[in-house]
């Protein structure tokens, strides 16, 4: 018995010893940690942090990693500041960066200028990877092109015909509006009216009253959680009876928390599968729960986790050198991750063929196929 | 247009107008007694809303379930504490700078507003996120054709109108109102007649800020959601409303508030292009009005300020 104790002590000592001899490598995480969409940013931060902790706990890893966390507040000006801060710091080898499309769009030039390889973990505007040819910029999550194509096909498949569109006037909202409108026209749906709103607008009663007059079956909203909450809540106040369809920007627990029972029956679309249905999702969620983070990983947590892991694998292989890491990341093909296989195309965009459809049921985002709406027990349109 | 929908647009505009008017009256009261522009006013609105929210969270967490009781406590706490904050701001920041150029007061209150706003953002738990505001008023609604009248919105509208009428009565029917009007007209003569200058000014700032607190709570109850930066735009709109009405004139501020709301509604409804430009439209009209009538629509008739 005493021998066993001794053995274990020695083993533990041996396991922890090599860690002290390793070099420390720093990688950056950038996302919105404060502001209206901070829930997503914090979930991403925790997920990237989890990847780093797991790696540091692995005795075989050649380096010890340190995550430098920066807050872009989902504001382009702040995003450029923190991106410059990270990129100008030669001790930082690579970054897991950005949830907000407008911020990512503003920051990619900075990464190019300073040669910092980054992997975008949540922003969905196609232009982030496709409007440039920056070898530094990669993306593990899909773009809004795939998302809107699937959304238009699915909703017209449910025999909806008439839409009203509300989009915020940022790159994110305008991009969604553009792709959804095009796809909807192809799928045979009709758009009765399109309304641009500012991203910090409070009152939507005028727009919604106009929409009430148009009598759409569905209101398509392209924007983020805070404005989504306001519009859905004011729809109810004005008696606008239409299905509320959102984009990946509202797939967050904060959306449901802000609305309570009014969130019921809201549909939205997102690339990739929900965490528990991903290839490595169970393992990820179990590890996440074990760390007792105060916030949920949210929708894009697994992508942040995959991005951080991918970066650390590249550094483990070629060493903490920005140019070598960039070249290694560029080559990524059929890489196994929690979000499935990652392959970067010629614009370093991961091809994510899978789009998941969500509906809010009893205060939770439920995958459409598993919901009572799909089985016919509940209906989106109340008779 | 369908008459029901027209009624809906009109009511939406009126509801916005009441909130704007409540804020604008504060601006115009402060300008009336001291000839100052207090730019922290919008943030006092926000602080009032957050005070009410904190009280409701505290009471609900403490097991109080009666909505009227919680609501009453929220109103009392928000109004009383904002009246105090307003008087304190006047005593500590505005009055000491009375003989300084007006721009100094403008700057110091602008900074005070930033301190309040960032203070809430940093010290209220998760203050950066939009906060759901409790729904404490009866939730039903009446449908008249295409017009949906929510009972809670109707109550809020009535409360706002009553508050404005109340201020009117205070100004015209009470000794305090007489003192405020006297100080507004001529501080020196008023003092010579035995009206306590400092006390009157502090009372005016307390009344204006209490209205701001009410505006904050009405805003929260109407939208069921508040955020730390709601005072920014509301302050700018309230100030514009006070200016187009004619700074210093309470009725002008009320008129300005409703006018601005009407402009925004028209901007969103009647303009052929996207509603994203409704604020651009409303503020552009304000600029035009200012160019035609620099002293505002209901300018003070006396010319003693010239």
Architecture overview:
The complex is a heterodimer of chains A (383) and B (306). By secondary structure, chain A is of the alpha/beta class. Chain A has helices at residues 2-21, 38-57, 76-88, 101-114, 127-130, 144-157, 171-187, 205-214, 225-237, 253-259, 281-290, 301-318, 322-330; strands spanning 23-31, 63-71, 92-97, 118-120, 137-139, 162-168, 190-197, 218-222, 243-246, 267-271, 335-337, 340-342, 355-361, 364-367. Chain A has two domains: 2-142 and 275-352, Response regulator (Rossmann fold); 145-271 and 356-370, Rossmann fold (3-Layer(aba) Sandwich). Helix content of chain A is 44%, strand content 20%. In chain A, the strands form three sheets. Chain A has a seven-stranded mixed beta sheet with strand order 7-6-8-9-10-13-14, with helices on both faces. A five-stranded parallel beta sheet of chain A has the order 2-1-3-4-5. The mean pLDDT of chain A is 90. With 306 residues, chain B is mainly α. Chain B has eleven helices and four strands. Chain B has helices at 3-34, 41-61, 67-94, 102-123, 151-173, 175-185, 187-192, 197-223, 230-245, 250-269, 278-292; strands spanning 131-132, 141-144, 147-150, 225-226. In chain B, the strands form two sheets. In chain B, strands 1-4 form a two-stranded antiparallel ribbon. In chain B, strands 2-3 form a two-stranded antiparallel ribbon. Chains A and B meet through strand 7, helix 8, helix 9 and helix 10 of A and helix 1 and helix 10 of B.
Structural class assignment of chain A = alpha/beta
| Overall tally of domains of chain B | 1
Radius of gyration of chain B: 19 Å
Please write the string of helix (H) and strand (E) elements of chain A.
Answer: HEHEHEHEHEHEHEHEHEHEHHHEEEE
Q: Distance between the terminal alpha carbons of chain A, to the nearest Å?
A: 71 Å
Strand content of chain B: under 5%
Domain count of chain A: the total is: 2
- Derived from helix and strand composition plus strand pairing, the structural class of chain B reads mainly alpha
Q: Name the shape of chain A in a single word.
A: globular
> Which class of the largest domain in chain A in CATH terms?
Alpha Beta
Order of helices and strands of chain B: HHHHEEEHHHHEHHH
List the strand order in the largest sheet of chain A. Answer: 7-6-8-9-10-13-14
Main beta sheet strand tally, sense and closure of chain A: 7 strands, mixed
Query: DSSP strand (E) fraction of chain A?
Result: 15-25%
Report strand order across the widest sheet of chain B. 1-4
Q: Quick one: which chains have the greatest interface? A: A-B, 34 and 38 residues
**In angstroms, what separates the terminal alpha carbons of chain B?**
48 Å
């Amino acid at each position: 018995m005493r021998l066993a104790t001794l053995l274990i002590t020695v083993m533990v000592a041996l396991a922890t010893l090599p860690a002290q001899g390793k070099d420390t490598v720093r990688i950056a995480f950038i996302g919105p940690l404060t502001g209206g969409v901070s829930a997503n940013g914090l979930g991403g931060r925790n997920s990237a942090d989890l990847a780093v902790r797991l790696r540091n706990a692995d005795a075989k890893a050649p380096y010890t990693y340190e995550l430098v966390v920066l807050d872009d507040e989902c504001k382009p000006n702040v995003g450029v500041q923190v991106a410059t801060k990270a990129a100008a710091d030669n001790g930082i080898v690579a970054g897991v960066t950005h949830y907000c499309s407008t911020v990512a769009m503003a920051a990619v030039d900075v990464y190019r200028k300073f040669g910092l390889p980054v992997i975008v973990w949540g922003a969905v505007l196609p232009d982030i990877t496709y409007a440039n040819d920056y070898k530094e910029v990669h993306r593990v999550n899909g773009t809004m092109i795939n998302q809107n194509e699937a959304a238009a096909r699915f909703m017209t498949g449910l025999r909806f015909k008439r839409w009203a569109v509300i989009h915020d006037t940022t790159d994110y909202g305008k991009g969604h509006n553009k792709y959804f409108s095009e796809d909807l026209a192809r799928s045979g749906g009709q758009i009765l009216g399109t309304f641009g709103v500012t991203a910090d607008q409070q009152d939507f009663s005028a727009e919604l009253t106009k929409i009430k007059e148009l009598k759409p079956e569905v209101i398509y909203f392209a924007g983020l959680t805070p404005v989504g909450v306001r519009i859905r809540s004011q729809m109810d106040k004005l008696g606008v009876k239409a299905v509320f369809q959102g984009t990946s920007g509202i797939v967050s627990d904060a959306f449901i928390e802000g609305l309570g029972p009014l969130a019921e029956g809201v549909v939205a679309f997102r690339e990739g599968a929900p965490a528990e249905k991903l290839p490595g999702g169970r393992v990820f969620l179990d590890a996440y729960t074990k760390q007792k983070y105060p916030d949920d990983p949210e929708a894009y947590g697994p992508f942040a986790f995959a991005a951080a892991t991918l970066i650390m694998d590249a550094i483990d292989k070629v060493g903490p050198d920005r140019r070598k890491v960039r070249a290694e990341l560029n080559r990524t093909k059929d890489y196994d991750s929690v979000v499935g296989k990652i392959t970067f195309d010629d614009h370093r965009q991961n091809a994510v063929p899978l789009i998941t459809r969500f509906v809010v049921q009893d205060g939770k985002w439920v995958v459409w196929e598993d919901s009572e709406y799909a089985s016919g027990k509940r209906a989106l349109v109340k008779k | 247009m369908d008459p029901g929908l027209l009624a809906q647009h009109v009511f939406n505009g009126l509801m916005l107008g009441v909130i704007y008017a409540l804020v604008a009256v504060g601006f115009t009261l402060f300008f009336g007694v001291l000839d100052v522009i207090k730019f922290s006013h919008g943030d006092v609105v926000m602080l009032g809303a957050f005070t009410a929210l904190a009280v409701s969270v505290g009471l609900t967490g403490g097991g109080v379930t009666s909505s009227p009781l919680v609501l009453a406590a929220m109103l009392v706490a928000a109004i009383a504490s904002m009246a105090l904050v307003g008087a304190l701001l006047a005593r500590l920041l505005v009055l000491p700078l009375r003989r300084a150029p007006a721009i100094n007061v403008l700057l110091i209150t602008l900074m005070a507003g930033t301190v309040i706003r960032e203070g809430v953002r940093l010290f209220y738990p998760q203050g950066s996120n939009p906060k759901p505001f409790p729904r404490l008023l009866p939730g039903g609604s009446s449908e008249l054709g295409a017009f949906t009248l929510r009972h809670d919105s109707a109550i809020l509208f009535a409360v706002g109108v009553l508050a404005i009428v109340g201020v009117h009565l205070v100004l015209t029917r009470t000794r305090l109102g007489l003192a405020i009007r006297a100080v507004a007209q001529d501080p020196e003569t008023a003092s010579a007649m035995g009206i306590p200058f400092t006390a009157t000014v502090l009372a005016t700032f307390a009344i204006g800020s209490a209205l701001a607190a009410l505006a904050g709570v009405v805003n929260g109850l109407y939208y069921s959601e508040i955020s730390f930066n709601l005072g920014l735009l509301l302050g700018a709109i309230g100030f514009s409303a006070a200016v187009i009405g004619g700074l210093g004139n309470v009725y002008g501020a009320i008129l300005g508030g409703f006018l601005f709301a009407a402009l925004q509604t028209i901007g969103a409804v009647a303009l052929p292009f996207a509603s994203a430009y409704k604020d651009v439209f409303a503020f552009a009209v304000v600029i035009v009005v200012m160019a035609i009538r620099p002293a505002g629509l209901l300018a003070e008739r006396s010319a003693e300020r010239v």
